[in-house]
Task: structure prediction
Amino acid sequence: MATAATTPDRLVLADLVPGSLARDAALIVGGAGLTGLAAQVSIHTPLMLAAGIIEFVGGVLILLGLFTHIAGFVASGEMAVAYFMMHAGKGFFPIQNGGELAVVYCFLFLFIACRGAGKFAVDKS
Result:
C-alpha cells in the first residue's frame, strides 16, 4: 500500500522534527536565548524528557523508514498530548491557542503511521 509519494512526506516530516527537538534541547539545558512561552516552560520534568526522547527516536526511525508504523503512531500520540497539555486550555481553535504546529505534526505522524514508510525505506512494510 505504500507508494513512492509517501517517501517525500516522510523525509520532509523527519527533517522538520529536529528543529522542534533543538528547541526542546535548549529548554533542557536552561533555555538560554528563548523567549515567550518557550522560556516559561519548565522542561526539567520526566514527561518533557520522555517527549524529547520520543521526538528524537521517532524522528530518526521515520527518517530511516524503520518501524515507521509504530514510530509514527507513538509520535502522533505524543504530539496530541503536547497539544492538549500546552495549547488546548488557551482556546478552542489551534489558530487561537498557538497549537497549529502540534496539530499538523500530530496528523502528519498519524498519516505516516497509517501509510507506512513508502517505497524507499529500510523496512519495506
Remarks:
- The chain is about 70% helix and 0% strand.
